[in-house]
Design a protein that fits this description.
Distance between the termini: 45 Å
Radius of gyration: 35 Å
Mean pLDDT: 76
Structural class: mainly alpha
Order of helices and strands: HHHHHHHHHHHHHHHHHH
Shape: flat
Length: 472
C-alpha cells in the first residue's frame, strides 16, 4: 500500500467508526458501495489495509506521517491486533436469538450499530462466524483462544438450543469427531502412563529414539509394544498432543515430570561418544551439519537420534565449552577440527595434488612439456577411490576458478600461494602490453605489467612492496 491512498484508508476508518462506534475492523471488511460511506472509499479493502499498517508499525505513512498518526490516535486505532472476542460473539448471538427466536441467521448478516445490539460487537460478521462455528465447533478460533471452561459453556448453551444440525450426515461427522477425540485422549493417557513407568524404572525421561516398551512386567498391558522413543520425539518436533485448549495444561504436566524437550542438550559425554564413533567409522571428525546418528549398529543405542552435526556446529560457536577448558582439552585430544575453512583448504590442496598426478602429469608428459596444473571448470571429483572421501562431489574446477578470480583461500592466508606455485597452478593468461602472463587473483591494486612474464606471485608481491595486511 502506498502513502498516496492513506487518506482514503483513514477516511474509511472514520466512516466505520461513525457507523459502528468503534474501530475493530474485521480483517476481510470491504467498504460497501452505498451511503453513508464516501463514494471514493467504495469497495476499499479496509481490513487488509489496516492489517498492513499494523504489520508495518507505521513505517510507511509517507510524507503525511505526523498528521496521519494524529488522526489514527484520535480514532483510538490500536497498532496491535484488535479482533472481536468470544464475549462479543456471545452477546451478539444472545441478542439475535432473543429478537429472532431462531438459530438460523443469514450468511451475510453483520451486527448493526443500533440498540438492542451490543455496541462492542457492531460490525461483527455474525452470519459468517455462525456458519464457521457449525463446521468447526470447538475448533473455531474464537473458542480455541479462550479458556476451555468459557468455550464449553457457550457450546452447551448452543447445544441446548439445537444449534448444531442433527441430520444423519452431521451425526456421523459428530460421531467421528467424538471418536477421534476419545482416541486422542486415550493415546495421551497411555503415553503418560508409559512415561511415568519409564521414569520409575530409569530415574529420568531421556528416552532413546528407538526405545519400544517391552512386553513384560512391570509395564502395564495397555502400553506394551508402544514405540515410546518415537512418540517422545514427535512431542519434541511436532508438538503432538500439545495443541488445542489442553496444550498449556499438558505442557505444564510434562515439565513437572521432568520431560526432556531437547534431546542430549545437557550430555556433553554423549557428544564425545558420538565423535569417537564417527571418527572410528570415517577416520576424521568433519561431521556434516545435518548428520543425525542413525538407529543402526555400530552406533551405541543411547546415541540413536542424536543431531551430532548440529551439536558440533554449536561447539564451534562456544556451546558446551564456554568456561570449560577441560572439555576443550578433551576435544583437542580427540583431534576436533575447530577451523573448517582450514580443513576445506587442506582437502582442496590434497585433491589438486592427486589431480596433478593422475591427470596433468600424464597428459603433459606425452607432449614433453612442463606440467602446468589446469583443472577444467566443469570437473567434479568422482565419488570413488583413489580420490579423498572428503572431496567426493567437490566442484574442483569451479573452486580453482574462484581461487584465480576472487582469491578464495589465498586472500585470507597468502602463504598458501607458495603451495599452489609448487604445483605449477595455472593462474590464467592476460593480454598486457608485454604480451606475457598475468595472474588473475583479485589483487586489483597491483601493477601486472612486468618485464618478467614468469615471475611468481610471491616475487611480484615482494617487488611491489605490498604488505600482507594490505593484501588480506
Amino acid at each position: 500500500m502506498g502513502w498516496w491512498d492513506l487518506n482514503e484508508v483513514i477516511e474509511g476508518l472514520e466512516s466505520f467508526n461513525a457507523t459502528y462506534g468503534h474501530v475493530k475492523v474485521p480483517a476481510k471488511f470491504v467498504v460497501p458501495s452505498c451511503e453513508p460511506w464516501p463514494i471514493y472509499c467504495w469497495k476499499l479493502s479496509l481490513g487488509e489495509h489496516l492489517n498492513f499498517l499494523r504489520k508495518a508499525q507505521g513505517r510507511y505513512l509517507g510524507p503525511q506521517a505526523d498528521d496521519a498518526a494524529e488522526r489514527l490516535q484520535a480514532l483510538g486505532f490500536e497498532w496491535e491486533e484488535s479482533a472481536y472476542s468470544l464475549k462479543d460473539f456471545e452477546m451478539a448471538w444472545d441478542t439475535h436469538y432473543s429478537t429472532a427466536k431462531t438459530v438460523y441467521i443469514p450468511l451475510s448478516f453483520v451486527v448493526p450499530p443500533n440498540p438492542p445490539w451490543p455496541l462492542s460487537a457492531a460490525g461483527f460478521e455474525l452470519g459468517r462466524e455462525v456458519s464457521r462455528l457449525r463446521r468447526l465447533r470447538d475448533r473455531h478460533p474464537l473458542l480455541s483462544s479462550e479458556s476451555e471452561e468459557n468455550s464449553q459453556k457457550f457450546l452447551e448453551k448452543l447445544q441446548n438450543l439445537s444449534f448444531f444440525p442433527q441430520n444423519s450426515r452431521a451425526r456421523r461427522r459428530t460421531q467421528r469427531e467424538n471418536k477421534r477425540s476419545q482416541d486422542a485422549q486415550k493415546s495421551w493417557e497411555n503415553l503418560l502412563l508409559a512415561l511415568r513407568t519409564y521414569y520409575d524404572l530409569s530415574g529420568d525421561l531421556d528416552v532413546p529414539y528407538a526405545y519400544v516398551v517391552p512386553s513384560e512386567d512391570p509395564w502395564p498391558l495397555e502400553v506394551q509394544g508402544l514405540p515410546l522413543g518415537i512418540r517422545v520425539q514427535t512431542i519434541r518436533s511436532e508438538k503432538a498432543h500439545l495443541t488445542g485448549p489442553e496444550s498449556a495444561k499438558r505442557t505444564e504436566l510434562l515439565n513437572e515430570m521432568g520431560f526432556v524437550w531437547e534431546m542430549h542438550e545437557m550430555k556433553f559425554e554423549d557428544i564425545v561418544d558420538g565423535l569417537k564413533q564417527f571418527k572410528q567409522i570415517h577416520a576424521h571428525l568433519l561431521v556434516p551439519q545435518d548428520f543425525v546418528v542413525p538407529p543402526l549398529s555400530p552406533w551405541p543405542e543411547h546415541l540413536w537420534g542424536l543431531k551430532l552435526g548440529h551439536r558440533v556446529n554449536r561447539i564451534r560457536n562456544d556451546a558446551y565449552i564456554k568456561g570449560r577448558p577441560d572439555r576443550k582439552k578433551v576435544l583437542d585430544d580427540l583431534g576436533f577440527e575447530w577451523d573448517t575453512r582450514d580443513v576445506s583448504w587442506r582437502v582442496t590442496l590434497e585433491t589438486l595434488k592427486l589431480y596433478k598426478v593422475l591427470v596433468t602429469d600424464k597428459r603433459e608428459s606425452k607432449k614433453g612439456k612442463a606440467a602446468e596444473l589446469r583443472v577444467p571448470q566443469t570437473f567434479i571429483v568422482p565419488s570413488q577411490p583413489p580420490w579423498p572421501e572428503l572431496a567426493w562431489g567437490m566442484q574442483l574446477g569451479q573452486r580453482c576458478s574462484k581461487i584465480r578470480l576472487r582469491g578464495d583461500f589465498i586472500l585470507e592466508n597468502p602463504s598458501r600461494i607458495k603451495e599452489l606455485e609448487n604445483l605449477s597452478f595455472f593462474w590464467g593468461r592476460g593480454k598486457g602490453p608485454d604480451g606475457g602472463r598475468r595472474f588473475v587473483t583479485g589483487y586489483a591494486d597491483l601493477d601486472w605489467s612486468l618485464d618478467d612474464p614468469h615471475m611468481s606471485l610471491d616475487d611480484l608481491i615482494t617487488t611491489q612492496q605490498v604488505s600482507t595486511d594490505n593484501i588480506s
